[in-house]
Amino acid sequence: MGEVHKIEVEMTFLSKEEGGRQHPPALTTPSSYRPHVVVENGEYLGVLFLSAPEFVLANSAFSATLGLLYYPQVDYSPLVPGAEFTVREGLHVVGRGRVINRWIEHVA
Description:
The chain is mainly β. The chain has one domain (about 1-105): Translation factors (Elongation Factor Tu (Ef-tu), domain 3, Beta Barrel). Helices cover about 0% and strands about 50% of the residues. It contains no helices and six strands. It has strands at about 1-15, 35-40, 45-50, 60-70, 85-90, 90-105. The protein has a six-stranded antiparallel barrel with strand order 1-4-3-2-5-6.
């Protein structure tokens, strides 16, 4: 039996004028979009979008569920409810968000 560590977030992608992406990424399942989230100036934490709206617009808030890709090899302890983060692609900040909930899902 395995575990999948997940967080629920509310986030927005920045517009191109704010230094974000030309177009928001495709987040439909299965998503291959795997950015990093960074709390304050901490470590880059790899995540995978597990569920999100099919279409998102820059500067429009939306909710999503993210999987913590490298748990337990990477310390994801900064991602607690209420924690604010940036979404990064390499050194570029492309979005901002906040953790709403965190849980472990047991899978067979």
